[in-house]
Each structure stands twice: as C-alpha cells, then as structure tokens.
Records
---
Amino acid sequence: MNSLRGYIKGTGWEKFIAVMDMVSGALSIPIGIFLIILGINRWGTEEIASKLGAVLVIVIGTFAIPIGIFLIIAGIKLWRGAKNLENYKSTEKEEDMKEAIKNLSDYFTWRGRMEVVGLVISVFAIVFVIVILVLALWYGKGGS
Amino acid sequence: MNSLKEYIKGTGWAKFIAVMNILSGAFLILTGIVGIIAGISQGFIGIVFGALSILLGILTLMAGIKLWGTASNLQIYKSTEKEEDMKEAIKNLSDYFIWYGWAIAIALAMVPLGIIASLFLGSSMPGLLY
C-alpha cells in the first residue's frame, strides 16, 4: 500500500489547524477562569435577573475550561498526525502510517467531545438568556 | 498493511463533526444571504460581511462533506480492507483539512475587518454613546 503517499497532501494546513486549536485552547482556559471570578464577584447583587446573569457567566466559564483542555489535546494529536504523515511521505514506513491514523482518530475523538460540550453550553446559554429576559421584563412591569 | 484497520477508531465522532460542519456551513450561507439583502438597503458593510459569510459557509460545508466521505471510506475499509477505500479516505481527509484550513483563515481575516467595521460604524453614529 505504498502508493498511499501519493494521496497525502495538505499536511501544512493540518499543522496550521493544530496551532489554531492549541492557541484557542490556551486562550479559553484563562478566559474561563476570568469569567468564573467575574460571576462570583457579581453574585452579591440584589436583583434576581442579575443573580441569574452571574450564574450564566460562572457556568460559561466552567465549561470554557474543559473546552480549552480538549482543544489543546486535539491540537497536539493533530500536530503529531501531520508529522507522522510527513514522515510516511518521505520514509514510507508502515509504522508512521499506523501512528498517523491513531493520532488522527484521537484528534477527531477529542474534537467531537469539544463540540458536544460547546453544543451543551450553547443550548444552556440560549435557555438561560431567555429566562433572564423574561424575568427582567416581568420585574420591569412591576411583578414581584 | 492490513493491520491498519486496528488503528481506525472515532469514525462516529468524525461523522458527528461532519454533520456539525455541514449544518454550520448552511447556517452561515443563509446568514450571508440575509446580510447581503439587508446590505442592499443599509450599506456596503452588510454586503461585504454577507459575501464573506457565504464564502465561509461554502468552505465549512465542503469540509463537512469531505469529512463525511473520509469517515464513510474508513468504515468501509474496516470491513472490506480494500486498498482503494483507504486511498479515498486519505484523499478526502487531505481535502477536509485544506477546506477547513481555508475556512479558519477566512474567519481569522474577518476579525480585524469586524473591528474596523465596528469603529467605522461607531464614528458614523456620534450620538450613540450619549
């Protein structure tokens, strides 16, 4: 199956995506921590809508940390996969192709997990924002 | 190299990511069309961002289609172990990374453009903050 090397292209793009994943992951973690601290600081407000806003910020911050970790791991796996494919292109060693497939499979697994967490937080945020808006409108109309 | 099949896993995750890419690509194309329609009456910024959104949507959609193809080829290879399936999978995977890489590059280019557009809009509405 040595003719496989003729089909390998775009390893430069793979490395670019890997770097972008690692950088976004590295940014996501401190942003998550910042949001948690911000939410805790805003917790002391009187209004229920503001309190819910603080909860939303804390929850988004809590989810941003695992998203960042998953992205960093995915980026590392993709970088390794790209390196393995480059090595296979030059050496045609079977081991390099096996390692590439293993790393790329891991990449998609971690990336998929990250997308699931992202989806969950998006749905949660949308529901929460609607609840906050309804509460803000209710209290704005003089509800108690 | 038949033992390669033992290393193939996560094709379900790959298909999930492919579906997400296809859905977000379609959403971006629709957003872009709305942006262009709004831009015709509101100003050129809507047209520029609408066009970029359509471009980004097409790239993401294509990436999703290629990734779906890759996952399907790998699943077939796992059961048939035909060399042709692995070749197709590698070809589709390479294409996926090229399309997705371009999508990320366009999205990155949109960030400074967005900042410039915001500043332009802000300066054209001096009473906005008062």
---
Amino acid sequence: MEYQTNYQSIVFMGKIASGKGTQAEYVLKHFGGTLYSNGNKVRESAQQPHAFGQKIKDVYEGGYLIPEWVASYWMTHALISEHQSERVVFEAVAKKPDEAILFHEIHQWIDRPYIVFNLDIQDDLVRERSAQRARDVVDSAKSVEKRLEEYQTYTTKSIEFFRSKGTLIDIDGSQSPAEVQQHIFNVLQK
Amino acid sequence: MTPKTIIFIGPQGSGKGTQIEKLYTVIAEHDPSRRIVDIQTGRRFRALAAKRETFADKKIAESLDSGELQPDFITHLLWGQAMLDQLDPKAHLLVDGFPRTAHQARVLDNALAFFEREKVVVINLETPEPVVRERMESRARADDTPESIETRLKWYREDTLPVLDFYRNRENTVVHDIDGTLDIDGVHQAICEALNLN
C-alpha cells in the first residue's frame, strides 16, 4: 500500500452528504482494508441457507432498522473474529450512543487502535448537497429533515462520547474533497 | 407441543448442564419432528479458551481462570452466532449461561422478538451457596479454583438475581422455582412436572 497508518479501525461520522462515503473510498484505496457496512452484511446473510438470512433481508428491504442485537453482533464479530488482523473502514457505525460505547469497549479489550473522523457541515449545506446529488430516496427533502433530526437526537451524543475518549478528530466538511482528504491523511500518518 | 423457549438460571454447580441434557432427551421423545437448539455459552467459552488461537481466545481463557464475568459483547458474540446459524421460529430453544445481567436479558429479548418467540419459560434452580461450594469441591474442573468459585458466586448474587426479577416482571413469561438441592433425578422430575412433560 501507498501509505501506512497505525489505526486498525477508521470511522467516518457526519451528517448526510458530509462526504463520508467519498473519504472512506480514498482511505481504502491508499491505506488498504475492508469497508464495513450493514448493507453489505445484509447481502452476505441473504446468501446463507439459514432462516436468519431471509428474515434480515425482509427487515432491511422493508425499510426497517436492523435490530440492535444484530447490529451489535455483526460489529463484534467483525472486530473480534472476521477482520481481527486487518484494517476496517467504517462508514456509518455507532450512530447511537450505546453502539459507540460498545465500539470503544471492544477496541479497549482487544487493544486495537481506532480513530473517528467527524466530517462537520452545517444543516444548510446538507440540504444543498442532497438536493444537488439526488442519489436516491434518502436525498428527498423530507427524508433529509428526518435524518438531520435523528442525527441531532442520537449521533451528536455518540460524537460527544468519542470526543470525551480523545479518539475523535473534527474536520471541516465544507472544504473541497481534496482538502478534507489531505487533513485525514495527515492525521492517519502521524 | 408448541415451540418452547426455556432459559436455565442457577449458580455454578446447580446442575444446569446435566439437567439440560436430560430435558433435551425428554423433549426429543415428546416432539420428534421439531428441532431443538441448545445454546450453552459456558461450554462455548471453554472451547475457545482451550483453542487459545487468537488474542481474544487468550483473553477469554484468562477471565475464565480468574472467575471474572466475560464482557457482555463476548457473550453476545457466542449466542448471536448460534442463533444466526441454527434458530428459526419453529425450533425449541434451550438456553444456559446467559443472560447474566439485566442488560443481556434486554438484548436477548430483542433477539427473541426477531425470531417470533415471545413466550418464555425460566427454570430457576435454587441452590444455596453451601451446597454449591460442596459440589464444586468434588467436581474439580480446571477453572474451579477456590478464588474463582467465590468470584462467580459474588457476581451471581449481584448480577444474575436482577435477571430473575426481569423475568418475573416480563409478560408472557413463567418462572419455575425448582429446588436444586435434590438429587439429579429429583430435579429432573421437578422440571418435567413444571413443564407438563410427564
């Protein structure tokens, strides 16, 4: 790989359209590792012959949240078993404070260094970027407002938790993707 | 028989493992067409500790030797794996080794709802501490040192008893208090009577 970092888990947090996916891709491309996402886990499970796979697929496709016991099981399994010796880049994990605490506890227990990047942007920029890209249904005005509200209710608490542990780096997400990338890469290579 | 979810609660040395084995046989005879999923986290912990392959395995072995409670997420990893691989709404489910804290009980409830298993039966093997100590001394398993026995008894008192309260207050739940001081067949008989499996 082109660049080296000591961080085995790299997390991107931020509002919708803050550039998490783009930056996760840059990091994977230049530092290596696996992208972790619940969507991927659902697709993998659906391929399995057990009853669970079909059920979780129905839940996900029905637009419901992945049950908490499944989300925390998947995260634990990824860190302790599946990807224990490789880098994992997390896009949209620990959105709720309980998950953030669990995420931190697991890393402490297995002595695995992690870092969280908070891509900070104003709500107006979220609205503007979502309207421009109109990627899918979640970019609709109504969905954007709902997600901003959820972000305010839950995710800001997760961010505060990581900040209190000294594992969070705030990044001005209103900068250009290249500027954001530069900032992230500088931190990762320290 | 409708699909049963049976959770065993009792201190170390209360005979949970033995009783689950005997109950398994009885259920299999009564309801041969239905699968029985038997999840015992203690047994799974000991298997991982014996392997000592990964860093996590070694940490689990250390906690086991000292009698400390494993972190919630490791317990969750073990039963989560078993449920993903084996469970469906139609099977019978026998559970031992968790939930050990009220938090674990709530997470387990989340999983039981997912598998459409709202009705729960709890078998509470009431076994006083002097009886437990005496049995533990004669069992001599590798992780049974005097210190680890006392540590496990302490967390049982502090953490597991709130779990019983959780189930006593849960809807669609029956808690059967069984005298764990009886001999193996006596306890087995009492469990079968409680579950109407005679």
